[in-house]
Amino acid sequence: MAEITNELTAKFAAEFKENEKQQAVQNAVVKNGITNSAENIVAQSNNVPVFSIDLKTGNVSNQKQSGRCWMFAALNTFRHKILDNFDLKDFELSQNYTNFWDKYEKSNYFYENILATADQEVTSRKVAFLLETPQQDGGQWDMMVSLFDKYGVVPKAAMPESSNSSNSRDLNNYLNKKLRKDAAILRQLVADGASENDIQASREDMLQEVYNILAISLGTPPTTFDFEYRDENKEYHIDRDLTPKSFYDKYVGVDLNNYVPIINAPTEDKPYNQSYTVEMLGNVVGGKQVKYLNLDMDTFKKLAIAQLEQGESVWFGCDVGQSSNRQNGIMSLDTYDMNELFDIDFTTTKAQRLDYGESLMTHAMVLTGVDIVDDQSTKWKVENSWGDKVGDKGFFVASDAWMDEYTYQIVVRKDLLTAEQLKAYEKEPTVLAPWDPMGALA
């Protein structure tokens, strides 16, 4: 191993001091910070929020201090349909209701994975992976499908936000404390040769405690409710004695089996036109398998455009923090000129960023528009879930080049796929490791 000598450091310091440009940049960065000093104002003029296809969406939602973006994005796609179909000015579905059942199911999913790996050392990579984060706020589209299929949805008025859904740190902290303790108990029961009945009885007691924690923290999910609203013509409507499932069927009415998650992962281990799943990724035991079809980026974007052209918004997952100006709502490769600021080339390929841990899906939002010029997409309209104080009243603009580099997943209808693509999706998927970047939770 080569150590750093004092002489080598002195050489570097002398060269830095002799560079007048770096001295000037140092003054700016020390005073103003890295991103503020590197901000490129041209990016704003290159990404004006005007689009040739621009869907009606209503006001943006706000996930606040929680990681429920995947959930907000999915519910927002449903909200767009409800706004159109029932002539509403604004409306939201309950994110707190879905959050309750997600954490409840994730806890059980964790128990099942702990039992399935009970024969492995606690230091094994799989067990360590499970214990690192027993559950969290994030998720993926197919996990959302499992929740909707089992529990339906409710209007926000039927189960409003709580302090702990809007700011989830304490709930996640104490729920994970409990799950790790339960993991130790379950593993010990297996090691002691306990009967299957005894193990399941213990697991059931644990789930009762999980339910209690969630009910205390988030409230009790409704089983029946009335739905009251006034449409844009001020006409009053009321629908009584609905269940979450009957509400979904009547007011959302989306057949979730008709949608396919598409990924773009240009790494050597994931050839295009093949399906993939991720080991130990899910939330509902017995629910829908998380499964994707990997396609090249050109095809990926054409599918998203096709769905937008038909008036339907698109759930998508991306690495939102890369080349992104939160306040201005611009996601563009020229948002910041870091190469010029540091006089260092930071450029890597999308595949390299996935392989070397530089990028993965961190956030889910909704594509609600796109600008097509000479039959080519140039920029995309993005509905975020960070409230209306950022971007253009909560909406962002993503340049087409940014989409190429930092978007990893979209969800589109099956009828938009070719017969060959659908056949590839329906084949038995290649199973990826639990820690594969495609298993990242948005």
UniProtKB/TrEMBL annotation:
Swiss-Prot/TrEMBL keywords: Aminopeptidase, Hydrolase, Protease, Thiol protease
Listed Pfam families: Peptidase_C1_2 (PF03051)
BP term (GO), one: response to toxic substance
GO CC annotation, single: cytoplasm
Gene Ontology molecular-function annotations: cysteine-type aminopeptidase activity; cysteine-type endopeptidase activity
Catalytic activity: Inactivates bleomycin B2 (a cytotoxic glycometallopeptide) by hydrolysis of a carboxyamide bond of beta-aminoalanine, but also shows general aminopeptidase activity. The specificity varies somewhat with source, but amino acid arylamides of Met, Leu and Ala are preferred
Active site residues per record: 69, 363, 384
Sequence similarity: Belongs to the peptidase C1 family.
PANTHER family listed in its UniProt record: BLEOMYCIN HYDROLASE
Protein's name in the database: Aminopeptidase
Species of origin: Tetragenococcus halophilus subsp. halophilus
